[in-house]
């Protein structure tokens, strides 16, 4: 590239946007470590003078520990279901010669267009009939199903990139489908798989609608629901609320710090392709 | 039938578990939503067949009609506000500036929060007595932004912009990186300035990215729910009762599950139709490449 003069206009615009993004985050972090009295006195933009972790301690005594455990259970189960079901499916879509697999692929593409809101009423009916209302399993199953279309899209994309020569070489060695899957497809789909894991985990961790409608008791509450309840009960305890918001995001932030690439691709989901 | 796996190709059986699971929890409910929309069901006992009752009631329900308009309005505002912002941010992030990586990392944070967390955060920020508006009464009047119609709608658009602009900026960043540098070099030689390059090269090359991003915004906008539930509860009055939220109210607060199912079905139809229209109008389905003349 030729040397260019700096783009001052872009610099100003970006700085403005930085302000818009960072201000709420600053208030969130600052308010969470102040007592309510201090926050009331210094206002949202004031700098926290007396640092305290009492809001975080209170969150845990308000049941956040349990919400964390429940959310972890949901997240791990959703990831497990997706990882068990989607890779074999993607393998079949990419490598099966029959005509039915393209129909299967189209079914999942159609699934991309189904919003969770559209099925929440019948889901409530089905889950109630199955006796899974107010049970974490009742949240896990639909959450996993609704992650699948994007995961199928990501994984078929990855598997299509595996060259034919490699498959042919394995076929000449007389490898059966199972061997091809475990020795060739899985090792070469690692990047796609990690994207899928992150995407499914995020969906499950941040999921709100299914838990809201399909659970009710304290024992089955997940984090997002805990936040929502906290908001309706203690709406004026802003430092407490914001500490809870920070807590609910800590695991995701950690993943962001240590596995940024996978996380960004996971968030992109459909948009990435 | 699929051939036996002598050639290392998987049989259709490999797809079955996933297909059955997905059908049970996504396809069957979609069929059921259509069935339920012709029934009356209070959540207890069994649904009773009711013919077109729900539909007739809905189309005579002023709140329902208003909710559709509100959904369209909020979605359109979202597209109009977010698209220019995210194109500019994305194109900027694809460029060679210093500090880009650090800034991009910060810009990305809102996307990590759940919609629930974002709504709770903004509600706290906008709290009339202790929030940001209370610090700038010259700008916000009494500071109760969520208390009037314009304020509430503006807040909803602002919050979704704050959260989702990074996602769309990412889409544009990826697309902008894929634009061949040779186009810009040719423009430099022709003496086209930065602004002209943006309008004559960058924007046309981003066409497919724009379509993808707009479709995502439309579907996302029409199904906005968490933010409305937490920030406005559809209020003041029914001024932010958008269709998705009205569905939830009808079904899970009013125990009219049949009516809720009808609204849900309507939502699917509208969302799909709008996506199809966007695809049609743009000629995206003809897969017109952006590589013409290369």
TrEMBL record, chain A:
The keyword Signal does not apply. It holds the Pfam family BPD_transp_1. It is found in: Cell membrane. Residues 68-259 form the ABC transmembrane type-1 domain. InterPro entries: MetI-like, MetI-like_sf. Keywords: Cell membrane, Membrane, Transmembrane, Transmembrane helix, Transport. GO terms for biological process: transmembrane transport. Its main location: membrane. It comes from the Bacteria. Coiled coil: none annotated. This is ABC transporter permease. It comes from Streptomyces niveus.
């Amino acid at each position: 590239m030729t040397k260019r003069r700096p783009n001052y206009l872009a610099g100003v615009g970006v700085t403005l946007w930085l302000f818009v993004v960072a201000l709420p985050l600053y208030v969130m972090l600052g308010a969470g470590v102040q007592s309510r009295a201090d926050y009331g006195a210094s206002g949202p933009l004031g700098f926290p003078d007396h640092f305290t972790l009492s809001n975080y301690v209170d969150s845990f005594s308000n049941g956040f520990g349990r919400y964390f455990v429940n959310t972890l259970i949901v997240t791990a189960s959703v990831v497990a279901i997706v990882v068990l079901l989607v890779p074999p499916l993607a393998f079949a879509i990419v490598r099966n010669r029959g005509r039915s697999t393209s129909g299967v692929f189209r079914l999942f593409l159609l699934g991309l267009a189904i919003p969770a809101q559209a099925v929440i009423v019948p889901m409530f009916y089905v889950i109630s009939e199955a006796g899974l209302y107010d049970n974490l399993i009742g949240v896990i199953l639909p959450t996993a199903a609704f992650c699948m279309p994007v995961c199928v899209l990501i994984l078929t994309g990855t598997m299509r990139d595996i060259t034919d020569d490699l498959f042919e070489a394995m076929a000449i060695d007389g490898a059966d489908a199972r061997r091809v899957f475990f020795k060739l497809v899985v090792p070469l789909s690692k990047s796609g798989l990690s994207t899928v894991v992150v995407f499914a985990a995020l969906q499950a961790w941040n999921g709100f609608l299914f838990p809201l409608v399909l659970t009710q008791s304290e024992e089955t509450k997940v984090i997002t629901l805990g936040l929502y309840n906290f908001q309706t009960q203690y709406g004026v305890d802003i430092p407490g609320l914001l500490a809870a918001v920070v807590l609910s995001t800590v695991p995701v932030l950690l993943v962001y710090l240590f596995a940024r690439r996978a996380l960004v691709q996971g968030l992109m989901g459909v948009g990435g392709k | 039938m699929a051939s036996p796996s002598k050639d290392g190709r998987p049989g259709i059986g490999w797809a079955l578990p996933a297909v059955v699971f997905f059908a049970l929890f996504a396809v069957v409910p979609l069929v059921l939503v259509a069935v339920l929309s012709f029934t009356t069901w209070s959540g207890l006992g069994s649904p009773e067949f009711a013919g077109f009752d729900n539909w007739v009631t809905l189309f005579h329900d002023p709140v329902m009609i208003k909710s559709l308009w509100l959904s369209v309005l909020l979605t359109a505002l979202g597209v109009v506000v977010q698209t220019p912002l995210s194109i500019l941010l994305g194109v900027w992030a694809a460029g060679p500036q210093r500090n880009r990586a650090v800034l991009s990392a910060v810009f990305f944070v809102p996307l990590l929060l759940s919609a629930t967390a974002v709504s709770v955060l903004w509600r706290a920020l906008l709290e009339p007595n202790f929030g940001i508006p209370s610090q700038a009464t010259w700008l916000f009047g009494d500071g109760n932004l969520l208390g009037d119609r314009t304020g509430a709608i503006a807040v909803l658009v602002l919050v979704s912009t704050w959260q989702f602009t990074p996602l769309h900026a990412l889409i544009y960043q990826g697309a902008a990186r894929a634009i061949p540098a040779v186009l810009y070099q040719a423009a430099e030689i022709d003496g086209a300035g930065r602004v002209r390059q943006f309008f004559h090269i960058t924007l046309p090359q981003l066409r497919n990215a724009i379509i993808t991003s707009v479709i995502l915004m439309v579907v996302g906008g029409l199904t906005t729910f968490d933010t409305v539930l937490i920030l406005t509860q559809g209020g003041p009055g029914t001024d932010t009762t958008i269709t998705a939220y009205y569905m939830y109210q009808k079904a899970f607060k009013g125990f009219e599950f049949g009516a809720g199912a009808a609204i849900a079905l309507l939502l699917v139809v509208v969302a799909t139709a709008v996506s199809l229209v966007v695809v049609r109008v743009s000629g995206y389905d003809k897969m017109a490449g952006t590589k013409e003349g290369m």
